[in-house]
Design a protein that fits this description.
Layout (H helix, E strand, L loop, with lengths): L5 E10 L6 E8 L12 E2 L2 E3 L6 H13 L9 E7 L5 E8 L11 E5 L7 E5 L1 E7 L1 H7 L5 H12 L7
Parallel strand pairs: 1-6
Antiparallel strand pairs: 1-2, 1-4, 2-3, 2-9, 5-6, 7-8
Helix pairs in contact: 2-3
Length: 164
């Protein structure tokens, strides 16, 4: 197996009346690099996993770590993989479920900030969550994850030719 990094994630979606028919649950990445940015600064709740780890178990663990609550029960819809610009491969599943963004209790990471100061600061992995229509989510998500919203659209439409 190659040594490149792999992440697994879980994209919640819920039905809505009118409009696109559904919304997705995404998170704004925390830390100083992403502060003040909206476009291409959001992510599917996800995280890295080791080659010997089950990717679905990793997606469940990472959702809980980033949102602060267990992944909801439901049918997991495979949305496949995407290679991000940095070379990391991301695999994502979708689950139809609801979650309250206000209940988020995100995990944190520590980094030197300001850079070169020698001061270590803690930041939330995801600093806020939101439900978004597919069009809005595609604008907000980092480029390498936008394909998952498109694949979810295909699934929701029920076109078997486009299913993974």
């Amino acid at each position: 197996m190659s040594s490149h990094k792999r992440s697994a994630g879980l994209l919640l979606f819920r039905s809505v009346d009118g409009g696109p028919g559904f919304e997705v649950f995404i998170g704004h990445m925390g830390g100083p690099f992403w502060a003040g940015r909206e476009a291409a600064a959001w992510s599917v709740p996800k995280g890295e996993y080791e080659p010997e780890e089950d990717p679905q178990a990793a997606a469940r663990r990472e959702f809980e770590e980033e949102f602060g609550h267990p992944a909801p029960d439901g049918t997991w819809v495979p949305l496949g993989e995407s290679r991000q610009s940095g070379g990391k491969t991301v695999v994502v599943w979708a689950v139809e479920a609801d979650a309250d963004p206000a209940r988020a209790e995100p995990g944190t990471f520590t980094m030197e900030w300001p850079r070169g100061s020698g001061v270590q600061q803690e930041f939330p992995e995801i600093d806020r969550f939101a439900w978004c229509a597919p069009e809005e989510a595609v604008e907000r998500l980092v480029a390498g994850q936008r394909v998952f919203v498109d694949r979810l659209r295909e699934h929701v439409r029920g076109d078997p030719a486009d299913r993974l």
